[in-house]
Amino acid sequence: MDRYDVLVIGAGPGGYVAAIRAAQLGFKTACVERWIGKDGQPALGGTCLNVGCIPSKALLESSEQYHRARHGLAAHGITVGEVAIDPAAMVARKDKIVRQFTHGIGGLFQKNRVTWLKGSGRLAGEGKVEVIAADGAVQAVAAGHIIIATGSRPMPLPVAPLDGVRIVDSAGALDFTAVPARLGIIGAGVIGLELGSVWARLGSAVTLLEAMPEFLPATDRAITALAHKEFKAQGLDIRLGAKVTAATAGADAVTVAFEDAGGAQQATFDRLIVAVGRQPVTDGLGLETVGIRTDERGFIPVDERFRTSASGVYAIGDVVRGPMLAHRASEDGIAVAEGIAGQHCHVDYGTIPWIIYTWPEIAWVGRTEQALKAEGVPYVSGVFPFQANGRARAMEAAQGQVKLLAHAETDRVLGVHIIGPHASELIAEAVVAMEFCASAEDLARIVHAHPTLSEALHEAALAAQGRAIHI
Ligand code: FAD
Ligand code: NAD
What we know:
The protein has 12 helices and 22 strands. It has helices spanning 15-24, 46-51, 53-72, 87-111, 190-201, 221-233, 326-340, 369-375, 390-394, 423-435, 440-445, 455-464, and strands spanning 2-9, 29-33, 114-118, 120-123, 128-132, 138-148, 152-154, 167-168, 182-186, 205-209, 237-239, 243-249, 254-260, 263-269, 271-274, 278-280, 313-315, 354-356, 361-366, 379-385, 401-407, 413-420.
């Protein structure tokens, strides 16, 4: 029986990073992964690389370029001829990027001497894992430390069963080869808004049916209000408090029945995406063989060092509590490997950035104003609109604002909330500031290059101190 110091089950951004870090630390490491890519070949990288972060951002970029070519160039005095979109070519570009990255992980495994065991991993008692290959062959391996990084999958919605053609999940929505004239999306969360944006920019009439009465409840209210207004102006029809009761796929269309404040409603779409959240993957994993029980939502309980209730078994990423984000999973992966090596093992969940890659982008770190109010924390707020930022105006992209929240007594930065151009990149400065326990004054006294978008964060910090210069 092959024996490894560390064996990781799952090669998403949690698992593959944990495996590489474990190998760097001198452990003999293997990683079990069963994913079969779109080309029919085994693939590393998990949800994120195959059907998540990377492919969705590739399509967001293509659709943004198309939209700008059609609608954004006239303001710069540029006239273009007819602009056309070839969705099949756009999807093929996305597939190429996915292949390059998933193959790249294979290269990183080779470089770091991580053995890829192809197949499904299943715990088989203390220190033992069985790997079931696609042809059914079973290989038993032993490991001193086992890291479960099996990730998550889309949450099914029984009233809207997928048929893979008319009704699809987020993975199916990355592969439309024609622009649906009418696109319905159940769930106005992160996936609904990102994929809704892709197809709306390409010409779909997009309707989002959201069960909750509130839009993006985890986001700062001021940002949500601006986002809602902006998305509406872009044509996204966001129906809040809409409870879907049935979705029926026909030969040419999908009929969706739902209830909202106006009573029973019906809508017809060419395609329907179900994006109502994700759930942890633990079925068939043999957790019972080592006595691990999942919690009431299906997650594997872990302590602050990612230890499960079974000795020598750890769990990280989407399969455990916390935000379902790739960068969070990867940081868990590094921390768990370092913990196994007897090193410091810590991830600061208080400074994990969240980003929604719409236009304008939404990004935040730390606490929202409504959370600070609810907790009774005294705070001051500084807001700076991109309308007053020279670079944003030069880019013709001056929608949105930066909002900074600082403790009213200590001045420590407690949260930064951005809606605007390149918010995904701008938020990094706020993350660093918060990680180093910066005050609003620290940010206000740091020189920011002119003209840059980052000056908006500088000005928001000045505003929190009541001394903004440009508003
Ligand atoms: P996963 O990436 O889900 O990987 C788990 C792996 O384990 C899979 O490859 C699976 O095949 C394998 N596996 C499961 N069980 C077994 C088994 N028994 N044996 C062998 N292998 C097994 N996050 C961001 O931070 N930024 C984004 O922009 C972003 N965009 C997203 C867009 C979409 C459309 C989706 C769906 C998700 C997106 N996410 C994004 C979320 C992100 O993809 C996940 O948070 C991240 O992939 C979680 O990493 P993970 O390693 O925990 O799990
Ligand atoms: P989500 O939790 O962001 O949104 C799901 C939405 O569906 C919620 O607003 C919820 O109220 C709604 N909903 C639930 N049941 C419903 C029902 N029956 N009818 C109508 N609406 C319903 O989940 P998601 O958009 O599926 O994404 C899953 C996770 O993947 C995210 O939470 C995030 O962690 C990750 N992700 C991250 C990114 C990013 O970082 N940019 C992008 C995509 C996905």
